[in-house]
């Protein structure tokens, strides 16, 4: 069941096809498989064994996939740390993961001081800095391995990745070999590749899926911590140079591309990770004529859950944001919101083979986010509130943690925000938060007080209660560090 067996088969079928392209560097599927085998053998010589955990702090690159997949190849567990996670959180993750190895760029090794002694340390660069690593990745890749893939069990942990933390502390999702294989099958079925496709993925999991289906991945030239500041001209040059046909990224990435007025001629763009407004979709449709635009819905623990085209989203009118009909591999239902009585709007829970069943060594998070039925079925609480329409499509109206109780009634933030924003180009973002039982609507805009009466009229027409409207006058609303687009309601509430 080791997920690396798929990559080995792809390397046999397409040995000379580029697997990963980063700037002027590239590597074929066969060369990548060979490097993974060498690195796996080297880590075993260093003393790493199946089941051991290893922190991986390497930006999206060829070295990232060599290191991460070498760990899976030998049956170890890769604890993947995103670049946006704070050092205090890294220390906490390292403490409970109890890693025996640390694989990272040179600067990352200074963070090893925050955790207990780690015997195996590998850097992707030279052994420099105040806390040098014992070995470099190139050093441990010599000599070659035997080409064998560790025979992992289906429920053996393979990869631990962390949630965005937009609703609290990030949690380590336990991605087993069974989960990764199921997720690969779901992604391949819902977003099928064509012969000759070249993808530009912003998310590491989509590059991992590309490796499993034999599609070349062009790593975008960007700072992954600031998606909203992508150099669109540089991205467009990459797309043209390497013949990119599809792209997967968060909404601000495509906002930046659309603003150039240049059409890269992509076959498909796939976005998600945060709400996408109708205004954004209309802008993208004008900027990318002829391109299929898909909006995906999911989470770290369950991806994909649903998706729909831009045209479907724009045609469907109703309260909230339509996420689409759950895919065939997902079962979904609603549960009551907290202690509120059951109603049309509830919290979405999902189950399926590619739904993460637990969090690594975090029983508190499991208790809070998982529901086990009497037959053993494990449901994941998506944390989103909404309702199903007559065709079985799910409409999002807010997050459980940001639902506001006002005068004995529940107020759903996204319904307020949707009513206030409309398609008004003066409003970049809107966020409704509860201060006690008061509903405060914050508008990210450069406009002045003249905007408030317009917003109040829209809210009244939609029947959405708001006690106060505040304008940021150019100051951006706080957003999540991963996608730079989801409102961080906790930080906004603290700011207010």
Provide an overview of this structure.
By secondary structure, this protein is α/β, with parallel strands linked by helices. The chain has three domains: 149 residues, Rossmann fold; 220 residues, Rossmann fold (3-Layer(aba) Sandwich), CATH 3.40.50.12780; 93 residues, GMP Synthetase, Chain A, domain 3 (2-Layer Sandwich), CATH 3.30.300.30. Helix content is 30%, strand content 25%. A seven-stranded mixed β-sheet has the order 7-6-5-3-4-8-9, sandwiched between helices. Strands 16, 17, 18, 19, 20 and 21 form a six-stranded antiparallel β-sheet that branches. Helix 9 crosses helix 10. The protein is globular and about 70 Å long.
A few lines on this structure:
The chain folds into 3 domains: 4-152, 3-Layer(aba) Sandwich (Rossmann fold), CATH 3.40.50.980; 180-399, ANL, N-terminal domain (Rossmann fold), CATH 3.40.50; 403-495, 2-Layer Sandwich (GMP Synthetase, Chain A, domain 3). It is α/β, with parallel strands linked by helices and 496 residues long. The chain is globular and about 70 Å long.
